[in-house]
Specification:
The chain is α+β, with helices and mostly antiparallel strands. The protein has a single domain (about 10-100), classed as Ybab, Chain: A, CATH 3.30.1310. It contains two helices and three strands. Strands 1-2-3 form a three-stranded antiparallel beta sheet. Helix 1 (about 5-35) runs antiparallel to helix 2. The chain is rod-shaped. About 10% of the residues are buried.
């Protein structure tokens, strides 16, 4: 027995797939372009990170001459951890903005 093909449903699915692909491309562009700046607990190190998690800049505030290596390493670890969390937060926020209004395919 032959199955009936719901061409309207197929057309809608194709349109939705194309829409998803467009949204995904927009999301990828936004994630790569959006940056977040975070500072170490003592404010001596600033890291700029994209929502994709790429570190694009590291800025040091103050001199390093009198810093203890272990103290500097601790501040660096803290700011890199904060940068990763900030990137994740920014990515989630952008995802909600881009895909938030996307409705589910009801009843199919």
């Amino acid at each position: 027995m032959a199955r009936e093909i719901d061409e309207a449903w197929i057309d809608e699915a194709i349109d939705r797939y194309r829409h998803i692909e467009t949204l995904r491309a927009d999301f990828d562009k936004a994630v790569a372009a959006h940056t977040v700046s975070v500072h170490s607990p003592d404010q001596s190190i600033e890291v700029v990170v994209t929502a994709a998690g790429d570190i694009v800049d590291v800025r040091l505030h103050g001199g390093l001459r009198h810093r203890q290596p272990a103290e500097f390493a601790q501040e660096m670890r803290a700011v890199v951890t904060s940068a990763a969390e900030a990137a994740r937060w920014a990515r989630d926020k952008l995802h909600g903005e881009v895909f938030g209004s996307f409705r589910k395919l009801e009843g199919h």
